[in-house]
Amino acid sequence: MNISIVGASGYSGLELIRILHNHPYVTIASIHNYSNVGMKINQLFPHLTDIYEATLEEVIPEQIMAQSDCVFFATPSGVSSLAAIPFIKAGFPVIDLSGDFRLDAESYSKWYSKTPADAVYLEKMEYGLAEFRQNVEAKWIANPGCYATSVLLPLLPIVSEQLASDTFIIDAKSGVSGAGKVPNSANHFVNAHDNLALYKINAHQHIPEIERYLGEKSPKFQFLTSLLPLTRGIMSTLYLPLTKAGARRSIELLEETYATKTFVRIQPDGQLPTIKQVVGSNFCDIGLTYNEKTGILTIVSVLDNLVKGAAGQAVQNLNLMFGMDESTGLLQSPIFP
Amino acid sequence: MNISIVGASGYSGLELIRILHNHPYVTIASIHNYSNVGMKINQLFPHLTDIYEATLEEVIPEQIMAQSDCVFFATPSGVSSLAAIPFIKAGFPVIDLSGDFRLDAESYSKWYSKTPADAVYLEKMEYGLAEFRQNVEAKWIANPGCYATSVLLPLLPIVSEQLASDTFIIDAKSGVSGAGKVPNSANHFVNAHDNLALYKINAHQHIPEIERYLGEKSPKFQFLTSLLPLTRGIMSTLYLPLTKAGARRSIELLEETYATKTFVRIQPDGQLPTIKQVVGSNFCDIGLTYNEKTGILTIVSVLDNLVKGAAGQAVQNLNLMFGMDESTGLLQSPIFP
Amino acid sequence: MNISIVGASGYSGLELIRILHNHPYVTIASIHNYSNVGMKINQLFPHLTDIYEATLEEVIPEQIMAQSDCVFFATPSGVSSLAAIPFIKAGFPVIDLSGDFRLDAESYSKWYSKTPADAVYLEKMEYGLAEFRQNVEAKWIANPGCYATSVLLPLLPIVSEQLASDTFIIDAKSGVSGAGKVPNSANHFVNAHDNLALYKINAHQHIPEIERYLGEKSPKFQFLTSLLPLTRGIMSTLYLPLTKAGARRSIELLEETYATKTFVRIQPDGQLPTIKQVVGSNFCDIGLTYNEKTGILTIVSVLDNLVKGAAGQAVQNLNLMFGMDESTGLLQSPIFP
Amino acid sequence: MNISIVGASGYSGLELIRILHNHPYVTIASIHNYSNVGMKINQLFPHLTDIYEATLEEVIPEQIMAQSDCVFFATPSGVSSLAAIPFIKAGFPVIDLSGDFRLDAESYSKWYSKTPADAVYLEKMEYGLAEFRQNVEAKWIANPGCYATSVLLPLLPIVSEQLASDTFIIDAKSGVSGAGKVPNSANHFVNAHDNLALYKINAHQHIPEIERYLGEKSPKFQFLTSLLPLTRGIMSTLYLPLTKAGARRSIELLEETYATKTFVRIQPDGQLPTIKQVVGSNFCDIGLTYNEKTGILTIVSVLDNLVKGAAGQAVQNLNLMFGMDESTGLLQSPIFP
């Protein structure tokens, strides 16, 4: 099958190219951009020489639909809310990696400070948290945010049994690639290196995304994010007040839920994962430890923000959409060391 | 005045040399070690050439007491519990940077798994959290741990007014210099770089130190520590459940408490500090932000683990002990960039 | 086909596992070690959970030969000189990633300060610089050193036409994974991070390896190595005094030589490669720029020391040995960003 | 005495503030900028809170001359060539940290692609390589470039005795702070981290600066620069073809020349310096090693590009200009670890 990528020169777009290069059934038919049109992608990114050397094309929906079976939007938020509409109207499959179709219109306006897509289209979108897909035949996928994925995978089973009732804490940290390719003060090497800095204090746009998909039973949570001096990787540390029985049940629940899931690895009890053990792979690794003295269950969830947190999960959704095994083309080992 | 350093070739010992090199009233009369005796310190650490080139000597208490006015122990835990005793017995001033004199005997045995100093000597020691020194004339100082300093400075004023009653969370992160100079798997570049890893899960020896000095009113707290891919710096993020009024009072309290303190800088409301803004200096910077929706006051405290978290605070204690202004020799700017 | 790995828990061994996990025709039948025997590899390296979970076994040649078609030695130098002999004697294929079979006995003694393998076996070994293999049917391969590969690939074509006659300079830099897994002072995070340090001054064991394989026409060269604060990657910068015509011919020669080679990418004239553009891949990227004013041709060669500089090239040699396309299982994209 | 700084919010300007904060005889009377006028410097750079909190002012020469005794220009190239003129005309002391007054007009136009200062003013400027100052009473100083300093200090004594006759090689590497504060693609964390990249191939503006100050006897040299993944520090590695006698004389010459110089430390023979041993200090450390086999003398020179390579040397020049000891306020220890 053929796919096209819009926004191929951003970090998520490049990661789609890297992953799909090894997918046995998928060909990248074309890549599209709003800048650098006419340039070969490997002129901009020499690592792709001899790997994938297509020319960046304009975004012309008819042309894309004529030659491909699905389009990925790896564009910043605010683009696909408009640009994806012609595809949806035409009944053509879309996987959107941005935040444009993850929230309802009101929330989107508030947290993104941008004009939301028309509600008709927002409703058509299925949230693409791959391990919890409702309708695997959905043709329009809002691929989840990187932080949201790292938080929802450990939390959803626990919250759906209403084990976590009190306010809890999420202390999340991400590498710099999560902040995008456009140079600014925060991603200047001198500011990010040898440093740790909190950002978007109580204002991160993944807060409403997590709330929404935790559902009506969502307890309150405090969510803060820090920028780590590394390129790839997220660690979300969750602190849940729980009774001993509640903690034990939570651990069981996660083990049960993910026993048959390829890309979520629950660590042995008390062993907490490190960021490095997932980099370059589609795994989300989760470790748990209960402290009887404080009554806190600590859950540590790590993933590669560009793979399971973006392009990898998008390919997982593509696989599901087209009836392939969800792990097709995604079973590469993390890069260690 | 003259001082001597035992354990001069470790990171805290080297930092004492760096700081005291610019102290107007202090001369380093001698440096002592349990290894590399007879070598010049600048053969081991060429950055000290022309700065300080003394030879490492054996630890002979009589000799040290004959030539100096105070001795610093910058040794690993388990050394000064024995080696400092002759000095204390002789009434000679000691500032110990290790954990050997911070806990009572029982706690020390439990958390350090080592033989504690005799209780007679433990009781003589004053805990050297400089901003909260009880008896500035004390001659024997247990210099606080780096994490403990970063946590106690923001917490003590709040806890002493009993504002924090519930269990709260401390998510603390430290650079690799905190883990010491002896090469091991955790501080191997390949394991620490591009990584984030939790360690000493519910078992960090600064937990009982924080509990002890918060005093009888100490609420329960969950304390976890991570290793950051950088050399110097600690960030401790505290999440306290508080009412709006409690949060407002806490902020006021910190501003009042530290208005006249040189080395604790309270950031403007809502502005959180980064690690880099204190590196190389004796400052502890504290920022606060209250989230009305979750009822959580987030406090972020940063310091350089080798300065305010070790050698800098030790010099601050030396200054107090000998009647100098506490900031003498310590007013250097952080290194930025 | 089946292979076995001796020394599976070192960085090169782990990289063999990572690469072979995606090889369509190769199964890792067993992994062997001189330590941690009886442990599952993913207990030591949790990134391998669900990827490859075999137990580390003792090194018993008969057993390995019974179940596999080829054995890799990913052991430190000084091991395979003895341990590989039973396999060679039995006519069983061996690919050795260490330096034990790359030099003649005299050079090996001098540069490695270890006892060389018996000359009978040294002679049987083929040097495995894949793009210049003499006898693709050779069953015993001395896989080249990482620096040597980065230097020989650009130099061999130029030296074989005797274009470089004068003494030239090689300024080579490597990431820390090249220094191995055993913790020591040089690979302590605090010493390697934020630093650049030269090591093995005029004494690097790849000097005689490069000299030997440049052949009788080898000109003199000055070779120095530095440790870079990153995990993977080598950059070798070569400065060759050449006439304008000689430089032009050198550039042509490299372009011609590698036009049909999958894993050596010659950059467009004047464009120099960066380390990041090859990390995670088996590519060696080479850029050239001639300075008419100084008469110096600068050649910059980059590769991932664990892939093209070790495990990747070893798999390339395996492919050649067993009649597969040399790129089988190796055509993954570099990881960028 | 009082000084003023123009361009106080750039890296060199901030470093002037850091260094002068500890200078016993100098007060920073005012700071000036072309942007952010009216803001307090510590609002932009919170590390300066309680250290130095002045407001950024417009650049009004009369006002600066009325209140100060000397003005530093820590502006990008292209600014002081015009902005410094009123001061020079008025006979007021100027220390310029940019490249605007280091070359003759023709060279400047060619290498900087900017309009040079009027030749009248170029001639008035003294090149401020502190250890080789010609006229210590000069009031107008062109402070040297960071790379140029690291290269000229080891080379000048050797070249002035005409020991180096052939073309030689300089392989120089710098941390990212050398590339300035304005965010761009090269200093984006994701591009600089875990990478090594050559830049300004045969086009670095310090080439003509080095040539000029080596003087008429300047041999040809090939000069290339790379960007290191660290913030502060330069290492310049020089490869000089020399006879054994020439090498021995060169080593002697450097030892003699710098025996009485505070800020140049010649390492013991064969011991090469690392970047980390000078960071935060005004030292330039130089190591040498001769390889008899290749006939190459390798010289490794390291310094902190913001201190000895910029602000520190500028203060050294200030000290000389006003008759103080050149080391006043500059004798701080490097920061290690």
TrEMBL record, chains A, B, C, D:
Under Gene Ontology molecular function, one entry of this record is: NAD binding
Into which family does the record put it? Belongs to the NAGSA dehydrogenase family. Type 1 subfamily.
Major place of residence: cytoplasm
Query: Mind listing the GO biological process terms from this record?
Result: L-arginine biosynthetic process
Q: Which domain of life is it from?
A: Bacteria
Q: What class of enzyme is it?
A: oxidoreductase
Known role:
Catalyzes the NADPH-dependent reduction of N-acetyl-5-glutamyl phosphate to yield N-acetyl-L-glutamate 5-semialdehyde.
Gene3D superfamilies associated with the record:
Dihydrodipicolinate Reductase, domain 2, NAD(P)-binding Rossmann-like Domain
Annotated Semialdehyde dehydrogenase NAD-binding domain ranges read 2-140
Q: Which reaction does it catalyse?
A: N-acetyl-L-glutamate 5-semialdehyde + phosphate + NADP(+) = N-acetyl-L-glutamyl 5-phosphate + NADPH + H(+)
- Name its species: Listeria fleischmannii 1991
> Which named protein is this?
N-acetyl-gamma-glutamyl-phosphate reductase
Q: Where is the active site?
A: 146
One cellular-component annotation, GO: cytoplasm
Tell me the keywords, alphabetical order. Answer: Amino-acid biosynthesis, Arginine biosynthesis, Cytoplasm, NADP, Oxidoreductase
Where does it live in the cell? Answer: Cytoplasm
What NCBIfam families does the record tag this protein with? argC
